[in-house]
Design brief:
Blueprint lengths: L24 E4 L3 H12 L4 E4 L15 E2 L7 H8 L1 H25 L6 E9 L3 H13 L4 E4 L10 E10 L2 H9 L4 E2 L7
Parallel strand pairs: 1-2, 2-7
Antiparallel strand pairs: 3-6, 4-6, 5-6
Helix pairs in contact: 1-5, 2-3, 2-4
């Protein structure tokens, strides 16, 4: 199955690197992480370029779920048990602040990328206790999370963990706008 994102967005096309390039920072890979890293470095005044072996956003980014969320499966209860409350909290705060940073960039740059604030939900047909623990763990870390049994799904569930203040967007429309401010070379493999 093909992803809907490349079919509904036009990414800019960049030339390949045809000669030597001297730069302070070379970002390798033109997905979400690479493009945002190069954008932030460029905005900070760092001499930076990005190389992509194929086309921008052709891998995982082009096939993403397009959700901006701190909800990554049954994670927070395990993080607290494994690394402690403080480290799990750092992870939660970093993810929550990332959602805010995406929203800030989208508004600041007036990017039309279908950004919508919405909850993120995790469902199970059988695991009520695990979902309850996850909601309690997330809530203890400052994430607005709750457990419930009502869902919009057409089948019954044992439970739902709902994270409020999450979002979704069109990732390629967003990244097309971000790429305009980055020195990018496509069809350019980093060999060493």
């Amino acid at each position: 199955m093909d992803s809907i994102w490349p079919q509904t967005a036009q990414l800019p096309v960049f030339n390949s690197l045809r000669s030597d390039l001297k730069t302070d920072v070379l970002v390798i890979g033109g997905g979400m992480a690479g493009l945002l890293c190069a954008y932030k470095l460029t905005r900070a005044g760092v001499d930076c370029a990005l190389v992509e072996a194929d086309r921008l956003c052709g891998g995982a980014t082009g096939n993403t779920t397009a959700k901006l969320t701190a909800q990554h499966g049954l994670l927070y209860d395990r993080l607290i048990r494994t690394f402690g409350h403080e480290m799990a909290g750092q992870y939660a705060r970093a993810n929550e602040s990332a959602i805010g940073e995406y929203e800030r960039l989208i508004r600041e740059k007036e990017i039309d990328c279908d950004f919508l604030g919405c909850p993120a939900c995790l469902y199970s047909r059988t695991e009520e206790a695990l979902l309850r623990r996850e909601a309690e763990a997330a809530e203890s870390l400052g994430i607005k999370a709750s457990f419930g049994t009502d869902s919009e799904l057409p089948f019954s569930v044992a439970g739902v963990v709902r994270f409020e203040n999450q979002a979704r967007f069109h990732p390629l429309k967003f990244l097309a706008a971000m790429a305009e401010e980055v020195e990018v070379y496509e069809q350019t493999k980093a060999l060493k």
